[in-house]
Amino acid sequence: MSGTSTPAGEARVAAASVPVHDEPDLLRDQFRQLLRYRWLIALGIVLGVLGGGWLGLRGADSYTATTEVTVRPLPIDSSGEKTAPGETSMGSERRTALSSVVAARAARTLRSEARPQRLAADLQVTNPPDTRMLRFAYTAPSPQAAARGANAFATAYLANREKDAATRVRSMVSSYEKQRAPLVKERDRLAKEIASSGKEGALDGTLSAHSSVVNRIAEINGSISDLRAEDTTPGRVVTKATPPASPSGPALPMMLGLGAAVGIGLGLLAAWVRLVFDPAVRTPGDVVRALHAPVLGTLPRGRTRARPRSLLAAGRLAEEYRSVAFRLAYDETFARRRRVLVVPPRGSIATALAASVNLAASFAEMGKDVLLLEADLRTPSLTERLRQADGVQPAGWARAPGHGTIGWPTGHRVPIDAGESGVFDLVPGHRVSKVPRALTSSAVTQLIGHADERDSVLIVLAPAVLSYADAIALIDRVDCALLVCDPREVRRDDLARVRELVVGAGGRVLGALLHAEGASGEPRRRGASSGPPAPPDRGSPAREGAALRVMVR
């Protein structure tokens, strides 16, 4: 049977309880968990499509025209020094083309009342690799406006560059003229001195100084002539912008598809973040990892419904309980003591109650001498459920022996007829004033010792582990625990805490029995949909139409 453990010791059983998944299985499991947050994925798709549609409609109303300009090196750089032939910093020229000075000149050309910064926001200037060329791309609502803007910015850039070059030349010429002025005065003074001097020795020195000054003035005049002869042409327009024939933005269908793809990615990312920070248990794998114990069974959800007034399951639900019972029977740890504590982690005990009754019936069907002990002494409900079950007549045993006493257990075992499954004994619980004393009494210990007899099984129903310490008070004598929980309503921290409490008290978690809302005959909350009833399963005739009945001895 698939639920049996290997006979190699308790350590190997515990190691085998946590399955080792292959990488593809883990990926499939994670993807299935992401699909639980379909609303986040759908929201991401909607936002992506809306954003893509907005960008598509916005791009459909914009046109881009392009003007290309070649940049000619200027004879003088910004520091006043002559540049080497062919030397131009295209990065600096690109930043100049995007400057507010060029934008203001273009605004005057376009006769636009918009701020220069606003016009420059619609301009893109790029430099093709390995070229001395600038490409002006201007975007505007109409083709004509786009062409005018591109040409205006290119013309403004060239005019600004030409003005800058002329200004540099004038500045250099003015600097040379200032250097020449004192030399001219010195030359004239030396000429007068030569004309009035009569001594030959003094005349030679004056002539030498005069010749030097004249040569320096000649050099300055040559430099001025060279500067005035320099070509300050900044460049020329290679390609003039013309009105574009089609919008510059991508087509609307393309933007919608791109937006949907981006939306799916954002939705999956949001779902993954939600999954990471979600403390709830979502899959049986989460239960296994938190408990370090296997999932022994999963009760059908809403498809096989027991009758409202019947505790005994039928159809697929009964078969699931029988499967769990067989897995427990062949578990090495359970087989040594044949005791199991059926308990929920927190919340209602209704499903755990139904599970304990049906497991007792399943073990009775296997020929075991079963004793069901209801250890819920705070809110006992099994007696009331049996009163309302089909075929059960109210009897004296159903009356509690009086509130405010410790008189539990009373020592009476009530035989319960589970139809063709067989008969099991029940020790019902009732309210007592001192629950801890009642659970740790010698009478309870004697009842738990019932499982030591041959072919005997003890099933103990206790309140939620995280609500009361009753289950922990019993675990040192019952040894094994079966957790009954709804994976959608329990947290991973809760399961880990349950395992710590059980193991710390000297017991062991055999596994978990998972259920959904409405499974196992548990009353459904208002507004919950149970789905259409499935046809009865004829594969389990032993439970079909059966009801629990109290046998009168």
Task: Give the helix/strand layout.
Blueprint: H1 10-16, H2 23-34, H3 38-60, E1 63-71, H4 90-97, H5 100-110, H6 116-121, E2 123-126, E3 133-140, H7 143-196, H8 200-229, E4 235-239, H9 252-276, H10 284-291, E5 295-298, H11 316-329, H12 332-337, E6 339-343, H13 350-365, E7 369-374, H14 382-388, E8 414-417, E9 423-427, H15 435-439, H16 442-448, E10 456-461, H17 470-478, E11 480-485, H18 492-504, E12 508-514, E13 549-550
Parallel strand pairs: 5-12, 6-10, 6-11, 7-9, 7-10, 11-12
Antiparallel strand pairs: 1-3, 1-4, 2-3, 8-9, 8-13
Helix pairs in contact: 3-9, 5-7, 7-8, 10-18, 11-13
Description:
- The protein is α/β, with parallel strands linked by helices.
- The chain has 18 helices and 13 strands.
- It has helices at residues 10-16, 23-34, 38-60, 90-97, 100-110, 116-121, 143-196, 200-229, 252-276, 284-291, 316-329, 332-337, 350-365, 382-388, 435-439, 442-448, 470-478, 492-504, and strands spanning 63-71, 123-126, 133-140, 235-239, 295-298, 339-343, 369-374, 414-417, 423-427, 456-461, 480-485, 508-514, 549-550.
- Strands 5-12-11-6-10-7-9-8-13 form a nine-stranded mixed beta sheet, sandwiched between helices. Strands 2-3-1-4 form a four-stranded antiparallel beta sheet.
- Helix 3 runs antiparallel to helix 9 (252-276) and helix 7 runs antiparallel to helix 8.
- The chain is rod-shaped and about 155 Å long.
- It starts with 9 loop residues before the first helix and ends with a strand.
